[in-house]
Amino acid sequence: MIDVTILQRYLPASVKNALKPYYRKMFPNQLCINFMVTFRCNYRCSYCPWVTRFSYSNIYTKEKEPTVEAWIGALDKLPRANIYISGGEPFLYDGMPELINGLKKHKILGLVTNATVKTAVYERIKKKMHLNVSYHSEFVNDDQFISKIDELRRIGRFHININLVATRKNIQMIQGLEEILKDHNVSLHIDPFVDPDTAFVYTQEEMLILSRYLASDRSSLNMLDFTSYTKKECSAGQNYINLMPDGTVFRCVGGSDYFHSPLKKRLLTMGPDAPYDPDFFLMGNLFAPDFKLDKSPVYCCLPCTAACDQDMATIKWLRNNK
Length: 322
Ligand code: SF4
Fold this sequence. Notes:
Layout: H1 4-10, H2 13-19, H3 23-26, E1 31-38, H4 68-76, E2 81-87, H5 96-102, E3 107-113, H6 119-123, E4 129-134, H7 142-155, E5 158-166, H8 168-171, H9 174-183, E6 187-192, H10 204-211, E7 232-234, E8 240-243, E9 248-250, H11 253-260, H12 262-265, E10 282-285, E11 298-300, H13 307-312, E12 315-317
Parallel strand pairs: 1-2, 1-8, 2-3, 3-4, 4-5, 5-6
Antiparallel strand pairs: 7-11, 7-12, 8-9, 9-10
Bound molecules: iron/sulfur cluster.
């Protein structure tokens, strides 16, 4: 059987990102977990919907975060899965390296980090794995960032890719950053900036710069349509879940936002069959003895508002809403 984590390790980031839209075709039945291990973060990026704008860490507090042993026990009850770890800053969760080392049954698809914890913490990870290191120019300069990347590379167990959100300010620095990273043999992935609140759109000039850097997994800025209430058949909840810091499980990232985010809740009151019920996305808690994955796809009419959901779930848009 093809192992996605082996592909992760050996494929260049450009090829990996080009293949991402076909991920579900290549691995139709494997469970994927988007694991938001903590919403605590030492940065407050102006564009972050979970940490800065709506403080999800006030809902999912540190006190509610289970221990490493509890997580390993609960995750071991699920079928073998590919787990992508994000947050918040995952390394603010106490024992993140030990949790990664202890997940023997599952594969770590990758982890997104701002690379701010001490290098010694990353050294405690004993597995070879993919790190998506996010660059936040609001808090760190090029030299500090690159020297930390070099330290992480020297550990020798990480396949590192740099992630940058193309905010208006960041667009101007993409080219320079790409040059620097090339010299250090590290790839750069650009995520378009999306803001349903201000209906942000790039200028033509910005699009010209951006189009040179968008990988095929993010090449269409139209993939996120906040106005489309077309009915979809979707495998979220069946072979893909979004796991929150206290074990709460949502079908998808977009669904957890419909449940919690004032920005997205607005969309529940629009569309042909409004109001929509945000409970539709809530599947229960992984620590509950009766927690189960779905056995069949669900039908969803809400705008699919998270790019990672479209990477990980099998979504069929149904013609004529049938
Ligand atoms: S279609 Fe999108 S928003 Fe709806 S359940 Fe699937 S992943 Fe979630």
